[in-house]
Amino acid sequence: MSAAASEAPVLRAAGVNKRFGGLQALADVGVTIRSGQIYGLIGPNGAGKTTFFNVITGLYTPDSGSFELAGRPYSPSEPHRVAQAGIARTFQNIRLFPEMTALENVMVGRHVRTRATALGAVLRTRSQRSEEAAIRARALELLDYVGVRRYADFQARTLAYGDQRRLEIARALATDPKLLALDEPAAGMNATEKLSLRELLSHIRGDGTTILLIEHDVKLVMGLCDRVTVLDYGKIIAEGTPAEVQRDPAVITAYLGGPQGGAAAPQTVS
Amino acid sequence: MTLFFPSLRNRPGAAIAATFVVAAVLVALPFVVGTMGNAWVRALAFAALYVMLALGLNIVVGFAGLLDLGYIAFYAVGAYMYALLASPHLTSNFPALAAMFPQGFHNSIWMVIPLGAALAAMFGVILGYPVLKLRGDYLAIVTLGFGEIIRIFLNNLNAPLNLTNGPQGITLIDPVHIVGVNFARTLDLGFVKLPSVYLYYYLFLLLTVITVVVCIRLQDSRLGRAWMAIREDDIAAKAMGINVRNVKLLAFALGATFGGVAGAMFAAFQGFVSPESFSLMESIIVLAMVVLGGIGHIPGVILGAVLLSVFPELLRHTVVPVQEQLFGRVLIDAEVLRMMIYGLAMVVIMLYRPKGLWPAPEHGVNPTTRDDARAGAAG
Q: What ipTM did this prediction achieve?
């Protein structure tokens, strides 16, 4: 444990600001995610979770902020560079390649860790063929890992919703990420699917991949995460273990409303 | 071969046999068709050229999902490159060049094919770079403009320097020579005489086979999957670490390559090029071949190209005699009828077979296979 603690954190983001016109979507947000953790990022609707997520994965350019991945600074300027650096993500509204098969989807994930060129493909060189075989083998392994191997040759769009979520996780894992970033993976899932997702995520953590989890479902987050950051109106209002965060008065106010939180209080909803 | 006949996938012997049968048919075809006249063999040679063009365009439109309405520009680039390098046009207009090359320009096909490919690829990148951020309709408009720009340049580059000879085009283009065989003359092999069109047919057939193999290999590769990924969802593709810019440029460049080679062959075959061969209508027809056959599916694209290139010949040879028989005179011109039928065919295809005549097979939507998978999982 102490050895792990002395290692550089997998992700360190500090002083992240992002403004959309008049809206300060993120104000001085920072997280430090240690290796082997499931790190939760929660907050009410519109708190800035997805914005933060899009910033660290390069989809949005931050106004300011510093970023380090496994001790090395990276600038999240272009999404494909972020993936190369070692952050793989999934999307809140699933973004698979719908007409490609499940297997092909995961094989695309291997793109960033393989090298074959167009010329190699045309000439079918020995190295290209062995790489191709390795891509296929690894992709099948990952389909098995998330439990959708039997749909390997099905087009992604024909898979059931829960299976599409799993397939998206397999595709992200195919990039050999240092950090697996999941944007509301449980959204739209029923209780059974959530339970098996939870098992899958702890399994992934057990195999050594660090996870950043954005989630609406507080129960899932509290049961699964090692540390949690709570965002509200683009600011961090609490950070700690799930138990600490749950007792934090600011968090309770943000979620349930309270004497000071008039504006956010649910009773004002007409 | 299993791509064309999926049922042969598990029977390698049958697949090899099928390959031989198809090869034999393709080799024998000109002798069968040739009995009706060399014009039909010529139509076959053109069909092979159009298959190359359609497969090249299919890389851009079918694999990478980038709508390109100016594809014929690459065909033009290849054709004019060959025309300039293998005709007296440049040497007769530029005395300095004539002094440097007293024999005139006569270039080997082994130099022209790679050069045509490379030049067209370069033009592909020139087109691709400014349109990287465009999609759909906007991309279509810009590529359409690009195609027209190339054609208009060719049409007007006869002054102040006469580079392209303007609308008159370039004539006296050398035919192809391979190992001493002049493709413009009949080749006597002793047991059989091969007229010029037969030779070109076999040459184009060979190039087409190479194109098909290259396309299949590209499709089943890391790059092919990246193309399909950006076609399906480019944000997800970026998030998976695909450098969308480079991959798109490669699609434009490789697609253009086939156009360039086909263009060079066209110039050699015709012996004459002029800007009117490269009009917007040609771009649209090549696109129609891809869409009608089955966008993104190599066998479908080949089918589309063959149908749409042979069909006008068929019409030309039947419309006039049939009308003369029926009415005693020609009421509707073959060309008019062709456009009418094209339009009708497109509407019917879009209504009843929106994925084309021979689309890529579906995977996993068939309820029976789905149930099998479920049952397998449960058991």
A: 0.88
